[in-house]
Amino acid sequence: MTKQIVFTEEANPPLPVYSQAVISGKTIYVSGSIGITRDMKLVEGGVQAQTRAALDNMKAVLKGAGVGLESVLKANIYLTNLSRDFAPMNEVYLEYFPSNPPARTCIGVAALPLGAEVEIECIAELP
Fold first, then answer.
1. Which SUPFAM superfamilies match (predicted)?
2. Is it the case that residue 55 has pLDDT exceeding 90?
3. How many domains does the chain have?
Protein backbone atom coordinates (compact mmCIF):
# COMPACT_ATOMS: atom_id res chain seq x y z
CA MET A 1 0.00 0.00 0.00
CA THR A 2 1.20 3.48 -0.82
CA LYS A 3 -0.31 6.58 0.64
CA GLN A 4 0.34 10.18 -0.20
CA ILE A 5 -0.50 12.98 2.21
CA VAL A 6 -2.29 15.98 0.70
CA PHE A 7 -1.51 19.40 2.11
CA THR A 8 -2.44 22.75 0.61
CA GLU A 9 -1.97 26.24 1.99
CA GLU A 10 -5.28 27.16 0.31
CA ALA A 11 -7.28 25.15 2.88
CA ASN A 12 -7.55 25.49 6.64
CA PRO A 13 -4.49 24.01 8.34
CA PRO A 14 -5.08 20.57 9.86
CA LEU A 15 -4.48 19.78 13.49
CA PRO A 16 -1.41 17.58 14.15
CA VAL A 17 -3.60 14.48 14.59
CA TYR A 18 -4.86 14.27 10.99
CA SER A 19 -4.09 15.17 7.37
CA GLN A 20 -6.22 17.35 5.11
CA ALA A 21 -6.51 14.31 2.84
CA VAL A 22 -4.78 11.07 1.95
CA ILE A 23 -4.45 9.52 -1.49
CA SER A 24 -4.23 5.75 -1.86
CA GLY A 25 -4.20 4.40 -5.39
CA LYS A 26 -6.69 6.58 -7.27
CA THR A 27 -8.83 7.34 -4.21
CA ILE A 28 -8.72 10.55 -2.18
CA TYR A 29 -9.98 10.44 1.39
CA VAL A 30 -10.72 14.01 2.54
CA SER A 31 -10.89 14.68 6.28
CA GLY A 32 -13.96 16.29 7.75
CA SER A 33 -14.29 20.06 7.43
CA ILE A 34 -16.26 22.25 9.77
CA GLY A 35 -17.26 25.84 9.06
CA ILE A 36 -14.28 27.68 10.47
CA THR A 37 -11.91 30.44 9.45
CA ARG A 38 -8.17 29.91 8.99
CA ASP A 39 -7.67 30.97 12.62
CA MET A 40 -10.02 28.21 13.83
CA LYS A 41 -13.03 30.40 14.65
CA LEU A 42 -16.53 29.32 13.69
CA VAL A 43 -18.00 31.40 10.89
CA GLU A 44 -21.06 33.41 11.83
CA GLY A 45 -24.41 32.84 10.17
CA GLY A 46 -25.49 29.41 11.36
CA VAL A 47 -25.57 26.12 9.52
CA GLN A 48 -25.74 27.64 6.03
CA ALA A 49 -22.64 29.77 6.51
CA GLN A 50 -20.84 26.86 8.18
CA THR A 51 -21.84 24.51 5.34
CA ARG A 52 -20.52 26.97 2.77
CA ALA A 53 -17.22 27.37 4.65
CA ALA A 54 -16.85 23.60 5.08
CA LEU A 55 -17.51 22.95 1.39
CA ASP A 56 -15.15 25.75 0.33
CA ASN A 57 -12.45 24.17 2.47
CA MET A 58 -13.17 20.70 1.09
CA LYS A 59 -13.01 22.14 -2.43
CA ALA A 60 -9.59 23.67 -1.66
CA VAL A 61 -8.29 20.34 -0.35
CA LEU A 62 -9.55 18.56 -3.46
CA LYS A 63 -7.87 21.20 -5.63
CA GLY A 64 -4.65 20.52 -3.72
CA ALA A 65 -5.02 16.86 -4.71
CA GLY A 66 -5.51 17.88 -8.34
CA VAL A 67 -9.29 17.42 -8.70
CA GLY A 68 -12.54 19.29 -8.13
CA LEU A 69 -15.95 18.63 -6.64
CA GLU A 70 -16.97 16.72 -9.77
CA SER A 71 -14.61 13.93 -8.59
CA VAL A 72 -16.45 13.37 -5.30
CA LEU A 73 -17.92 9.86 -5.15
CA LYS A 74 -19.32 9.91 -1.61
CA ALA A 75 -19.95 12.60 1.00
CA ASN A 76 -20.68 12.14 4.68
CA ILE A 77 -22.38 14.97 6.52
CA TYR A 78 -22.80 15.28 10.27
CA LEU A 79 -25.34 17.69 11.77
CA THR A 80 -25.84 18.49 15.45
CA ASN A 81 -29.52 19.33 14.86
CA LEU A 82 -30.69 17.13 12.00
CA SER A 83 -34.37 18.08 12.13
CA ARG A 84 -33.71 21.84 12.12
CA ASP A 85 -30.66 22.02 9.84
CA PHE A 86 -31.18 19.32 7.18
CA ALA A 87 -33.16 21.52 4.75
CA PRO A 88 -31.06 24.70 5.10
CA MET A 89 -27.83 22.69 4.78
CA ASN A 90 -29.19 21.06 1.61
CA GLU A 91 -29.91 24.48 0.07
CA VAL A 92 -26.22 25.33 0.27
CA TYR A 93 -25.07 21.80 -0.62
CA LEU A 94 -27.02 22.02 -3.90
CA GLU A 95 -25.05 25.14 -4.85
CA TYR A 96 -21.90 23.00 -4.85
CA PHE A 97 -23.45 19.86 -6.37
CA PRO A 98 -26.20 21.20 -8.70
CA SER A 99 -26.23 18.10 -10.93
CA ASN A 100 -24.94 14.54 -10.73
CA PRO A 101 -24.44 14.74 -6.95
CA PRO A 102 -22.30 12.13 -5.21
CA ALA A 103 -23.64 9.36 -3.03
CA ARG A 104 -24.24 10.75 0.45
CA THR A 105 -25.02 9.98 4.06
CA CYS A 106 -26.30 12.58 6.53
CA ILE A 107 -26.17 11.72 10.22
CA GLY A 108 -27.36 13.51 13.34
CA VAL A 109 -24.67 13.68 16.02
CA ALA A 110 -24.50 14.90 19.62
CA ALA A 111 -21.64 17.36 19.16
CA LEU A 112 -18.91 18.49 16.77
CA PRO A 113 -15.53 20.17 17.37
CA LEU A 114 -15.57 23.84 18.40
CA GLY A 115 -19.36 23.77 18.69
CA ALA A 116 -19.81 23.47 14.92
CA GLU A 117 -23.27 22.66 13.57
CA VAL A 118 -22.05 20.73 10.50
CA GLU A 119 -19.05 18.68 9.40
CA ILE A 120 -18.52 17.30 5.89
CA GLU A 121 -16.02 14.72 4.63
CA CYS A 122 -15.74 12.98 1.31
CA ILE A 123 -14.14 10.32 -0.82
CA ALA A 124 -13.11 11.32 -4.32
CA GLU A 125 -11.32 9.74 -7.26
CA LEU A 126 -8.30 10.84 -9.24
CA PRO A 127 -8.69 10.88 -13.04
1. YjgF-like
2. yes
3. 1
